[in-house]
Design a protein that fits this description.
Layout lengths: L23 H32 L5 H8 L3 H7 L3 H26 L5 H18 L1 H9 L9 H23 L6 H23 L4 H19 L8
Length: 232
């Protein structure tokens, strides 16, 4: 009998040409495909935002497909259902439209508290005027069970930023900072609810609404916050 050949170590399995999944070329194709899907998904979200602007909060997936020049089947390759598409639109409104405007104004170091508050209130009111359909869309989906709540998330981010500014002012004056978040949420809630009521009634001009809300907010905070240190 012929001796059986001995193979040391693990058994050798022949490799098929081109069958190595971790080659750089395969990784590159995977990365390009991932980026393509991400970019395509963002394009569809943009089409959905435009559909909201045109059709209103009750837009249909057909509206998005028509605007993007694709079929509904293509939409559902990137979104499992309409709820996921709605979540993506809400996220886009928050990250690209709402928060940049409001946090941007809040971050500007203006001459006094009244000027800073007026700028933020005015930015919010302008948003209602500039993007009425997107504003209605956000509120139409507020409080959805188990889904993203753009309104609550935006209120939280603005209140946290405002509260941090108030806390810093109190700390500079050697006073307890614990009231800062209560006051911040109070101001944000007051402005949000009043502006939302106004969006449906338009009972006064926008500029007058900004004046009224600014006066109310600064009237209260003026008695609570210490004056700003003299910078001269």
């Amino acid at each position: 009998m012929q001796p059986v050949a001995q193979v040391s170590g693990a058994s050798r399995v022949p490799q098929l040409a081109g069958a190595r999944p971790d080659t750089p070329s395969t990784d590159g194709r995977r990365a390009r495909w991932t980026e393509h899907r991400r970019a395509r998904r963002e394009e569809l979200v943009s089409a959905a935002v435009e559909a909201v602007r045109i059709a209103g909060p009750d837009f249909a997936v057909e509206d998005v497909a028509r605007g993007a020049g694709v079929s509904k089947t293509v939409i559902y390759r990137y979104f499992s259902d309409k709820d996921e598409l709605v979540d993506a639109v809400l996220e886009r409104i928050s990250s690209a439209i709402l928060l940049p405007r409001l946090l941007g104004e809040l971050a500007v170091d203006r001459a006094d508290d009244t000027a800073r508050l007026r700028a933020v209130v005015a930015a919010f009111v302008r948003l209602i005027e500039d993007e009425p359909a997107l504003y209605r869309f956000a509120y139409a989906h507020a409080g959805r069970s188990g889904r993203a709540d753009l309104v609550a998330a935006t209120e939280r981010e603005i209140a946290e930023a405002l509260g941090a500014l108030m806390a810093a002012r109190l700390a500079e004056a050697g006073r307890p900072t614990s009231p800062a978040m209560t006051w911040a949420y109070g101001v944000v809630g007051m402005v949000q609810l009043s502006a939302h009521w106004w969006s449906g009634t338009r009972s006064v001009p926008a500029s007058e609404l900004v004046d009224q809300l600014t006066a109310l907010a600064t009237g209260g905070l003026g008695t609570l916050l210490p004056p700003r240190p003299d910078r001269h």
